[in-house]
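Progress narrative, work stream C.
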Amino acid sequence: MNKFIITSGAVILDEYKRILLKKDPWRGWELPGGIVEENENIKNAVIREVKEETGLNVDIIEFCGISQQLKGNICNMWWLGIPINGSLRTSEESLEVGFFCIDEALKLIKNDCFKEELLKCLDKDNHPFFIAW
C-alpha cells in the first residue's frame, strides 16, 4: 500500500509584506509548516504548526497550491496568511524565527525547492500551482 505524507505550510506576510521564516535545526531557514496529523483538517494543521513553531496566531487567507516530493511520497499544501496576534518565539523545531524581506528570505533559504515554493506562493496570478520534483 502506498502511503503519502501530507504537510501544510504557509507564507505568512506581515503589514510590511515581510515573510515569516523559521530556522529548522536540520534543514536551516524555511517557511513554517509541518505534517498534517490523523483526523486533522489541512488548513487547521498549518495554523497549529505556525503557532507551535513561531508563537504567532495566524489567519489563512488563500490556498496557493501543491508541491510534491516524489522521493518520500510527500505532498505539501501551501497557503498565504497574515499574523493576527501572539509574539515571536522559538521552539524545539525553530532555532530562530523572524520576518524578512523577499531578498533576505531567498538568501537565508539554502534549499532550492524551498525557494521555489516561496516564489510560487507569492505569484498569486498563477494559483493554484502544482510542482513536483
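Work stream C, second folded protein:
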Amino acid sequence: MRLLVVEDDAALQATLLRTLARRGFSVTAVGDGAAALRRWTGSAPDAVVLDLSLPGMDGLQVLSQARAQGLRTPVLVLTARGTVGDRVLGLNAGADDYLAKPFDLDELEARLRALVRRSTPEPDVAPAGGMQIGRIRYGRDGGAIYRDGVPMDLTPRELALMHALLARPGQAVAKERLFEQVFPGETEVRYEAIEVVAYRLRRKLADTGLELVTLRGLGYLMRASP
C-alpha cells in the first residue's frame, strides 16, 4: 500500500515513516502543502494521511484543491484540532476519515487499511458464478482463468496461486497460507519458492487490469489495478 504522509512535525513524520514502513506500507512524506499537491499528483498513492496545520497552504486548502483537480485518493485527516467544527470542515472539504492527535498507531493502521479496502473496486460478477476484473475472468465452477475470453497459459502452481488470491480479492493472504496451497505436502521445497511463482504470475498479469501486490511482512493480495 502506497501512502503519502503530509506532516510538518519532523519528529512525528519520522515516527510515522518508521512505524508504517515496518508494517508493510510504502511511505512518502512531505512537510508542506505545495509539496503535498505536487507529490500527490505525481505518485498516485493508495491513501493520504493529511495534517491540517501546515505552513503556507494548510491541509484544508490542499484537500480542496486536490478534489477540485479530480484526485479521488482516500484521505485520513490527522490533526491536533479536536472540535466538531474542524472535523466537519475536513469532511466537507473531501476527507474520508478523521483522527485527532494524540492517536494510537494501531488505530491509524486499521483506519488506513479500511479506507483503501473500501476504495478498491469490487469485481464484477461474471456469468456462471465467476468474476470479472479488468480483462481477466475467473470461472468459480471450473476454476479456469480467462484473459479476453481465452484461457491463460498458467502453470499448475501459478493457477493455484491465482485461485488462492482470487478467493479473497482485495485482501491480504499470508505467505505461509499461500505456500501451503501452492506447494501442498512438498516439504523439500524452499519457502522462498512462492516468491518465484508470484514474480512469474505478476508478469503474465501485466496490462490486464488485475494486479498482484506484495505486502512486505504480510503476504500478497490481488486487486483491480489503480
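Residues 122-128 have pLDDT under 50 and may be disordered. No further action is required on this item.
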